[in-house]
Write a structure and sequence with these properties.
It is found in: Cell membrane. InterPro entries: ABC3_permease_C (IPR003838), MacB_PCD (IPR025857), Macrolide_Exporter_MacB (IPR050250). GO terms for molecular function: transmembrane transporter activity. It is a multi-pass membrane protein. Keywords: Cell membrane, Membrane, Transmembrane, Transmembrane helix. The chain is α+β, with helices and mostly antiparallel strands. It folds into three domains: about 180 residues, no CATH class; about 220 residues, no CATH class; about 190 residues, no CATH class. The chain contains 26 helices and 21 strands. Helix 2 runs antiparallel to helix 8, helix 2 crosses helix 10 and helix 2 runs antiparallel to helix 22.
């Protein structure tokens, strides 16, 4: 019997090729996009699932009342360790690390690597597999290092690097600290522990006895709020159980200022990736999932609408089946079988289409989607469930509605009396238009915000600025002088317009903030983020100096000077004109500093953040640096890069030449926005393709069924506009209603999204009216085109056969 159902269904589908094609094509689009989104979402949810005992793993975060005192992602150096030692019944283990980036050497090989200076518990705590070395004791002493397989291959050309020696450059007097490789671990997949701040760690060294900063154990000081801390709770213990212990530890070991300003929070590692960065990943998942759902729903709506419209062709078949004893249940199974057959065919076509489009979506979503050949059985089970649900949703209404038609009406082929009025079909068309309009408007809003981001005057020039990572890091007077000499040598190249040595470039909010007040009078303390730069920083980045200068006075460097931005000047109660030569007194102990100049506010981080007070100290006072930025002249950058590299290797032979361009770093700040824009563009195109196919199918069939009516109208003098008006008036009402529904919903959603930006576009009617107009153009264009084709037909041919 089942075989007969599918055989009958296949014959009907092959007989009506156009409508079968529309059914399969729309369902294929919907299932393919759903597969892409489904695999992406599963991969996002599975991040961190490979970590051992992830349900009990937490990141120790800091909630500062005064946000300038520290970062939320880091904590006090000894805190995680102290919680484990003093509350062992609550805390099972801990791991802390200090993220650094410096040169790692093996003989004459030098590579810039991300290095984690941390506790030796990380392998035990997270279960990273050891390929070579002692699995029970990967760190036998403080002179041991654990490296990844990829790092071993880079340094030694082999994976088994046990007992090999590596040297890690420190920031003190150009010294190096030697380590013996005691273990080689497998390359670590992306996770929220070792990729917490976006780095990819390949070298792990102990924090105890570490001399990277010139003093042992960077994690030992309670005055260091910039250590990354993790803890593992005992089974059954919750973060709420740690509230009081954290308060007791702070009261016991920290000064009153920290106790009053700091609240310790625990963020679960298992879903930290989804909630990090204001929940950007979770929002992306939600938006993509809704887009996939919308596309699949519209494909199902097309199936139902076209099935209803074309059902008159099957009413006589239904009537005859009933006359000869066919049961209603058999008819329902027949129609459901046909819907499942079409959906299964669409799913089979979706597999190669997914594989073909996988590289495209990998680039759009900046991910690595699984190949169909690597799908697990659970993925195929999910796809099968999707096919079953989609097929049932698409076929269940036509099946029950058509099978319920009265025998007399069905035998006569009276569609109106057999299936009732057109309320359902018009409702579903309205839903289709509403979803398409909402997605289209949302895409335009996202595109406008992204365009605004990349066109806004951010207060500095990012074009043709090469940022070289300045190595070796020797953070003392001699090291700064050496790197300044390198800078001056590079500026002698004809292609280099200017250069600047600094600790930061405009891509994030500086982590260091200090309290300052005017030296004269009784002014309140102002927390000001601070960085080290040199006298060419403003020129290299094209910043506007409003008053004074950016350390560019004659006579060279003058100690204890500071340059402020507009926000800092305003926070101190000054103006750019009155600020120059004013003296500031640090809230902590230290020498007074003189304001040398004021620069115009610029966006030193994402437009999601407000510009805050900022102070520049001369790099020779700051005594630390990380970047050497070159402003290049000329258009042929490809020829300039080898010249700069050649000069760099001559000046700093043991430091790799690593660089990026400022405009690429700026674009990286808005990677999620760019992904969202590209994904929304795809979703919009697919939505309107499905809508267009739906309109095409319904209008085509309706014109075919009314061919005799059209012929009679033509004979009686009707013109194309009269024929077109028959369809246009129905679709006009539906589109207007869809807009009235979509506009307020879309405004609320997009406005909530825009509120995540401190600097954003304002919503007007323009985007909404434009989408409304384009939808009318799409619908009217299809209707007019199909009506024109029908109008050209010879009425004699339609009236010949009665």
């Amino acid at each position: 019997m089942i075989k007969n159902y599918f055989k009958t269904g296949w014959r009907y589908l092959t007989k009506h090729k156009l409508f079968s094609f529309i059914h399969v094509f729309c369902l294929t689009i919907g299932i393919t996009f759903t597969m892409v989104v489904g695999v992406y979402v599963l991969n996002q949810y599975n991040i961190n699932r490979s970590l051992r005992d992830v349900e009990n793993q937490y990141i120790v975060k800091s909630n500062w009342k005064n946000g300038e005192l520290g970062l939320d992602i880091t904590t006090l150096g000894p805190l995680a360790k102290t919680l484990r030692e003093e509350y062992p019944l609550l805390v099972a283990d801990y791991y802390r690390y200090n993220p650094v980036n410096n040169v790692v050497s093996a003989g004459n090989k030098h590579f810039v690597e991300d290095i984690a200076i941390g506790d030796t518990s990380f392998i035990r705590m997270y279960g990273f597999p050891i390929r070579y070395g002692n699995t029970d004791r990967p760190f036998p002493n403080n002179h041991s290092a654990v490296i990844t397989e990829s790092m071993a291959l880079k340094l030694y050309g082999k994976v088994d690097a046990i007992n090999e020696t590596i040297s890690v450059h420190s920031t003190v007097q150009g010294e190096k600290q030697d380590y013996h490789v005691s273990a080689v671990i497998a390359d670590i997949p992306f996770n929220s522990v070792t990729y917490l701040i976006g780095d990819n760690y390949s070298v792990f060294v102990p924090t105890e006895g570490n001399m990277y900063y010139g003093f042992e154990d960077p994690a030992s000081g309670w005055d260091n709020p910039f250590e990354i801390g993790m803890i593992q709770l005992q089974p059954g213990v919750t973060p709420a159980d740690l509230v009081v212990p954290c308060q007791e530890v702070l009261a016991k070991y920290t000064p009153e200022n920290i106790q009053q300003n700091l609240t310790v929070g625990l963020a679960p590692v298992k879903d930290y990736y989804l909630n990090d960065n204001g929940g950007a990943a979770r929002r992306m998942i939600t938006i993509l999932s809704l887009s996939a759902l919308f596309i699949l729903v519209m494909a199902v709506i097309n199936f139902i609408n076209i099935s209803i419209v074309t059902s008159s062709q099957r009413l006589k078949e239904i009537g005859l089946r009933k006359v000869f004893g066919g049961a209603k249940q058999q008819l329902i199974i027949q129609f459901l079988s046909e819907a499942l057959l079409l959906t299964a065919l669409a799913a089979l076509l979706s597999l190669p289409l997914y594989q073909l489009l996988r590289p495209v979506f990998n680039e759009i979503l900046n991910t690595q989607l699984d190949s169909v050949f690597d799908f697990r059985w659970t993925t195929y089970a999910g796809l099968s469930a999707l096919v079953l649900v989609t097929g049932l949703l698409a076929g269940i209404y036509p099946a029950f509605r058509l099978s319920s038609s009265p025998v007399t009406a069905a035998v006569k082929g009276k569609i109106d009396s057999a299936i009732g009025n057109l309320t359902l079909r018009k409702t579903m068309l309205t839903v289709q238009f509403t979803l398409g309009i909402a997605v289209f408007i949302g895409t335009l809003i996202v595109s406008r915000q992204v365009d605004y981001i990349f066109s806004k005057d951010i207060g500095y020039s990012k074009d043709q600025v090469m940022v070289i990572t300045a190595f070796p890091k020797q953070w003392d007077a001699a090291g700064v002088k050496k790197m300044m000499d390198v800078k001056h040598a590079l500026t002698e190249l004809a292609a280099v317009e200017s250069a600047s040595l600094s600790f930061e470039v405009p891509k994030r909010q500086p982590p260091n903030a200090f309290g300052f007040m005017l030296a004269t009078g009784d002014s309140p303390q102002t927390m000001i983020h601070s960085i080290g730069v040199d006298q060419d920083y403003a020129q290299t980045f094209g910043m506007t100096v409003l008053a004074g200068s950016c350390f560019a006075q004659s006579g060279g460097h003058i100690p204890n000077q500071v340059v402020l931005n507009e926000s800092a000047v305003k926070a101190l109660g000054l103006t750019p004109e009155t600020a120059v030569n004013q003296k500031l007194r640090p809230a902590s102990s230290g020498s007074e500093v003189t304001i040398a100049g004021v620069v115009k506010d610029y966006n030193y981080s994402s437009l999601q953040e407000q510009i805050k007070p900022l102070a520049f100290f001369h790099v020779q006072d700051w005594l630390s640096y990380r970047f050497l930025s070159l402003k290049l002249r000329g258009a042929n950058i490809a020829e300039t890069i080898p010249l700069i590299k050649q000069q760099w290797e001559k000046l700093v032979p043991d430091a790799p030449f690593e660089f990026s361009f400022m405009d690429d770093q700026f674009a990286a700040l808005y990677q999620s926005e760019l992904q969202l824009k590209r994904a929304a563009d795809v979703a919009t195109a697919l939505n309107f393709l499905i809508i267009a196919l739906g309109i095409f199918g319904i209008v085509s069939f309706t014109l075919t069924k009314r061919s005799k009516e059209i012929a009679v109208r033509k004979v009686l003098g009707a013109e194309l506009r009269h024929l077109t008006l028959l369809f246009v008036k129905d679709y006009t009402r539906l589109i207007i209603l869809a807009n009235l529904i979509a506009w307020p919903i879309t405004y609320w959603v997009t406005n909530n999204w825009l509120e995540g930006y401190a600097y954003r576009i304002s919503q007007g009617l323009g985007a909404y009216l434009l989408v409304c107009l384009l939808v009318f153009v799409l619908a009217y264009g299809l209707i007019v085109g199909l009506c024109a084709k029908a109008n050209r037909a010879n009425p004699v041919e339609s009236l010949r056969d009665e």
